[in-house]
Amino acid sequence: MRPFRAAEALFLTLLLALLAACGSRLPEAAFGTRSTGPADGTPIRVGIITSATSPVGGDAFTGPRDGALAYFAALNADGGVAGRRVEPVTCDDGGSGVGNTACVHELLDEKKVFALVATTALDYAGAPLVARAGVPDIGGQPLGPAYDTYPHLYGIYGSLAPRTGGSPGWNGVLYGGTEVYRYFRTEHGAGTAAVVSYNQAASAAYARLIVAGLRAEGYRVVTEQVDFALPNYRAVAADLRAQRADLVFDALDSHGNARLCEAMDDAGVRVTAKVTNVQNWNSAVPQDYARSPVCRNALWVTGSSRNYEDTDHPAVKAFREGVRGTLKGRPLSQWQLEGWAAAMWFTDAARSCAGALTRACVERYLNRPEPYTAGGLLLPVRFERLDEPPKARRTCLSVARWQDGRGWVTQGGGMTATCATVPQLPYRP
After folding, report:
1. CATH superfamily of 178-304+392-427
2. What are the tens digits of pLDDT across the range 260-275?
């Protein structure tokens, strides 16, 4: 379990929700008919729900979908699953709760999909309906607490929570480790960390979570807050220089990150690392940070999947070859790799059923005690359903640094070697 990955995603959702309108939900009566497993000889139909045209705009949430579609295209070209094609059906929920529930209705009730794969929803309002229908949702991005709340939902980073359908986590509390902060302290000698946030509730809440983790690891912490409507990044950069921060973490959106980096370069701020998250782990860095070459080359990213630049690894090489013809000019991203891994996860589970494909068989594979790694693309993923949350846990970390001319360069001995036993801190989603 790596809940701080979920916390990062949850923060992103809450922050971007400022731009999104919330809608009403369809009644549960619309889901009176359960979809069953496909009959022999027919394609295996799976659904992919994505907030593709959300108010956030652009390709903010499409990476997992694109990676999954590329995997299924390669799979079908190679004969499918026991000779059966996998037929992906996509649905754009528009980034709203009502749109998400409509997608769930369309895919489960009308399209009769066997499973969902690589869900990436800004507001996963239909999650309880997916769980009630007993449809496995495999490898979704935890942009909210659903994957730590409901049965039959299996997020890409795993979960140790009971997932009984009541409150998220343990009585409404989730837990996250301090592995990111431990890494920079032990491997790079960092001692002073700055945390930059907006004066907005979701941003401030996530900043407090970062501050708690940093302080638990012994950092001197400097907090900076900017106005959400009229942010003064120059003032923040000036204080970062005065405070001699080693690290900069943030609770900002992508645009705010780029603006902060520009101000840091203008002010002559030099840091060991400007730390970002998996949502910004992509090949668009030279364009997004074109005006801040110094800060750009201080960008570091952490995550729970193998760097898409590690083409010496056979699973990464297969991913890169698989998406080459499908990107159509879009940036390569870590979320595409995780969508590819989600589709592989479903496929491996389906193949384990030896021709007798049922949802129960697929979920036996997902719930097995052996962790899943997607051929080495993911850190080991588990679903354990513990009655009590762990107080400490050994956790590993994928770390990369941006370098012009080389892209994202994996650091240390790789994700399976960058590990530590760290405390698990509580937070409320």
Report:
1. Response regulator (3.40.50.2300)
2. 999 999 999 999 999 9
